[in-house]
């Protein structure tokens, strides 16, 4: 994922505004602190966007984006 793509994702979440919690992404992933979730996912992505270890972060952010879009 490029820095530009990360910025576009971050812009989406900024424009979407704060979401009501809890948010269930799947049976194993529940977001209870929306701001912390975003911060804890975007910080490592910005530091090293090409690291394979960050792939789950990208996946969860994209899942959350789809969920927000479908509920919007």
UniProtKB/TrEMBL annotation:
The record's annotation in InterPro entries points to:
DUF6965
Per the UniProt record, one Pfam family is DUF6965
Question: Which organism is this protein's natural source?
Answer: Pedobacter zeae
| Protein name in the entry | DUF6965 domain-containing protein
The residues covered by the DUF6965 domain are 4-70
In terms of domain of life, where is this protein from? Answer: Bacteria
């Amino acid at each position: 994922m490029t820095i530009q793509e990360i910025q576009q994702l971050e812009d989406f979440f900024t424009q979407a505004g704060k979401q009501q919690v809890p948010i269930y992404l799947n049976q194993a992933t529940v977001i209870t602190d929306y701001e912390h979730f975003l911060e804890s996912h975007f910080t490592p992505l910005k530091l090293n966007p090409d690291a394979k270890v960050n792939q789950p972060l990208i996946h969860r952010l994209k899942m959350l984006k789809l969920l927000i879009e479908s509920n919007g």
